[in-house]
Amino acid sequence: MSIRTSALFLVLAANTLPVVQSFVNYANDFINPDYILAGNFNDTTIPAQSTIKQWAEDSTSGGPWSVTSKPYLAPSGDKHDYMSFSPYWWPNCTAVGNTTELTPQQIWTTCPYYPRDGKFNPDARIVNNIGDFDSMSNAVLFNSLAWAISSKDSKYSSRVVTWIKAWFLDEDTYMNPNLNYAQMQRGPGTEGQVGTHTGILDLKGMTKLTSGVLILRSGKAPEWTSDIDSQFNEWLKKYIEWLETATIAIQEKNSTNNHGSFYFNQLAALQVLVDDKAGAQKTLDEYFDGIYMGQIAANGDQPLESARTRPFHYRAYNLAAMITNARIAAYLSPSTASSYWNRTTTSGATIQQAALYAMDQQAGSEDPTELYPDVAAVAAVYGDKDGKYVQWLKEKDGSGFVSDASFLWDQPVGDAGFAALLVKNSSVSTSGSASGSASASKPGASGMSEAQTSGVSVEGSWRVRGMLYAACGVVMAVSFLEFL
Ligand SMILES: *[C@@H]1O[C@H](CO)[C@@H](O)[C@H](O)[C@H]1NC(C)=O
Ligand SMILES: *[C@@H]1O[C@H](CO)[C@@H](O)[C@H](O)[C@H]1NC(C)=O
Ligand SMILES: *[C@@H]1O[C@H](CO)[C@@H](O)[C@H](O)[C@H]1NC(C)=O
Ligand SMILES: *[C@@H]1O[C@H](CO)[C@@H](O)[C@H](O)[C@H]1NC(C)=O
Ligand SMILES: *[C@@H]1O[C@H](CO)[C@@H](O)[C@H](O)[C@H]1NC(C)=O
Ligand SMILES: *[C@@H]1O[C@H](CO)[C@@H](O)[C@H](O)[C@H]1NC(C)=O
Q1: pTM of the model
Q2: Of all atoms in ligand 1, which is nearest to the CA of residue 92?
Q3: What is the pLDDT of residues 338-364, one digit of tens each?
Q4: Which of 66, 192, 401, 422 could pair with 460 as two cysteines, CB 3.0-4.6 Å apart?
Q5: CA 187/CA 372 separation, integer angstroms
């Protein structure tokens, strides 16, 4: 399944045609809020800005989200406890007898479970706190970005406030600040009834959420009140304490592969969010002095990821996490940013070499699109003097990379002349448009109405690849690959 369509919603309401909505569910990212709020964008980002506004709308589907909306409770019996099932673990009921008589819950607690790496057990999404959190973090990110580039339209910021309150703060729907029941492997005995360390990855979207909230906070969105800010900080501090002390959280931190990288994404971002800059710096140094050193081989391969069942995916995935860690470090301390981007592993390689190696590999039967935003990020950070990154993106993705949302913040990157074509094709005039700081800081100055905005997005960025999942009369979120 395509990552481009991995957060895909197909809505089939009675007597209406299907409406396909989508957005890219980035493995992770951290976006400097100061860059977004300054609004000093190149005109070549106009299609990307339109995409962001479209994705802000698309991502609202299904919200507000809450841990309390699952059909089964965590073993604690507390509806406020987050719960998820390990996606690669399967029941073996051969010794249990006539299993057709067992309820799902009896299967979960009676049949021993065993792992099959890369084989997704679809019943893991019967409890979908994980998918709901992911949807929420995407919605927060795209709506906060849309707020900043849309003359600060309160439509977007109000939504974000509603979603944050529903997930974290409202009395009836809040989540307890821990992941004690994340990625339970299931099976008999008490062992099957507790979370495992891989479940910490479930909430990697905290980094995207942080980017969104920082935009509203730094941009002084009136809807983001000091009351919400302090209540949310209080929640986050408890959760950070759990991340730093719980045994399964420390086990995840100790993971040497992408699981460890994403743990540091999450912890560092949240420390930034509660304004613990020293703590975040320490966290990132611990990553770059620690597991990062073993993650990239001299030739740019990421051996821990290449060893997995879907190596193309895992290389792109960990690359996104490494880039995100470096981006948070760059945000904390612009003057020392290059020391992170240029940091060599024990084998002498940098993030740039990891990207170049990944670009050289065949995707085979895997989805190639997951790598595109990583390549654009690396081009923006390390420069693209001879145009090889843009050439690669153009070959693989046509004009798609220019209308991808991430093209707004992966700058400067060449657009291969596509931006003007995309704008022209959607009949959007560039006159008076988002040159300089106009689009973000001056009300009404973006040069694109909402209607025009959708035109660009539909034309330029929304490409259905891979499978469509249909469900009659319901909205079905498909969002599997990102949690593994
Ligand atoms: C399933 O359970 C049976 C009976 O206990 C056992 O013989 C078999 O090896 C198990 N299969 C797997 C794949 O674990
Ligand atoms: C298993 O249980 C089902 C439902 O009660 C029954 O129809 C079926 O005959 C049973 N199968 C065996 C092999 O006992
Ligand atoms: C994590 O790694 C450290 C250092 O190797 C070790 O001392 C500690 O026991 C590990 N903790 C867990 C929970 O695995
Ligand atoms: C890496 O170091 C070189 C030499 O100091 C510097 O010119 C370059 O900007 C650095 N790269 C990044 C991405 O910061
Ligand atoms: C905008 O981006 C294009 C493509 O990278 C570049 O050639 C141009 O100089 C940029 N314009 C400004 C004003 O930065
Ligand atoms: C613009 O539209 C033309 C004609 O429909 C099409 O061939 C071209 O690929 C489009 N360009 C882009 C960048 O989408």
Answers
A1: 0.87
A2: 1
A3: 999 999 999 999 999 999 999 999 999
A4: 422
A5: 39
